[in-house]
Specification:
With 275 residues, the chain is mostly helical. It is built from twelve helices and no strands. The chain is 70% helix and 0% strand.
Length: 275
């Protein structure tokens, strides 16, 4: 049985958060040991992987709370989205309590989000896949009430700048994510008679246009282009690759869900083209 992950995680957690941090770090290490039996990417040893996991996990929930509070109040839909993400990650016990505490920290008016994000950016460095997953999680949580508020989008763009994630790629990511959520769950912003977005998503049948958008394509794309886009997205979200680069094991389930959304969109396109 592997024990190195639990030892390093516990030691690192204790340094950061005392006994409670040690419990959390050990649990994170256990999840990592259980999730992969092979060595992580050669660019990092296991201690480095655990450091990335820790900072990524902390920043994920702190920034999520900060974005939720960016427009002045945290909506019920945003709270539900945070809980749903914790549920999908199967966080329980001390780990769930820690995630909730991080979310609450992010909501404070004096929360130094730039500093928290800087730590995450330093450990992620040039790992584009981790930055993409981080932004996808933040976008999904922010879109929970049906629309991004101006201050929320402004903050997300500032986050992109600090992580050196291009704004052009951000807009492509947002469009693809909205389409993927609609293809997978029928999520979409509902308009009122006054033309304003409703505060809750609704379920609607996804269209073929949504499927193309989910893969970042136009309907005029050729069959080979469709296949290339599909394979590229699957590669970007491959759980083993992300874990090797430091994605916390608890977030692997989110990566798996993402590949399912991409696959569903691809299957819709293939069915329409008889390929």
């Amino acid at each position: 049985m592997s024990w190195l992950g639990k030892m390093l995680g516990g030691a690192f957690g204790f340094l950061l958060g005392g006994p409670v941090g040690a419990v959390f770090g050990t649990a994170m290490g256990h999840q990592y040991d259980r999730s992969t039996g092979r060595s992580p990417d050669r660019r990092m040893n296991r201690a480095e992987v655990h450091e990335v996991q820790w900072e990524f996990f902390a920043a994920t929930f702190q920034i999520m709370g900060h974005i939720a509070k960016a427009d002045g109040r945290v909506s019920e839909a945003e709270i539900a989205a945070a809980k749903r993400i914790m549920l999908r990650m199967e966080l329980t016990g001390d780990m769930r309590k820690h995630a909730v505490r991080l979310f609450e920290e992010g909501k404070h008016a004096d929360f130094a989000w730039e500093s928290a994000l800087e730590k995450c950016g330093q450990v992620c460095h040039k790992r584009y896949g981790l930055k993409r997953v981080f932004l996808e999680i933040q976008l999904e949580a922010a879109l929970a009430d049906g629309a991004l508020r101006p201050r929320q989008e402004q903050l997300l763009l500032q986050i992109c700048d600090q992580l050196k994630f291009s704004r052009f790629e951000y807009h492509l990511l947002r469009a693809a994510l909205e389409a993927q959520l609609k293809v997978a769950f029928g999520w979409g912003g509902q308009h009122t008679n006054q033309g304003e977005r409703n505060t809750s998503p609704y379920r609607a049948a996804p269209s073929l246009a949504d499927a193309y958008a989910a893969l970042g394509l136009k309907s005029s794309a050729g069959n080979e282009e469709v296949k290339r886009a599909y394979r590229k997205l699957l590669s970007q979200h491959h759980p083993d690759k992300l874990v090797a680069n430091g994605l916390p094991a608890e977030m692997v389930r989110l990566a798996n869900e993402k590949t399912q959304q991409i696959r569903k969109a691809y299957e819709m396109i293939c069915e329409s083209r008889n390929i």
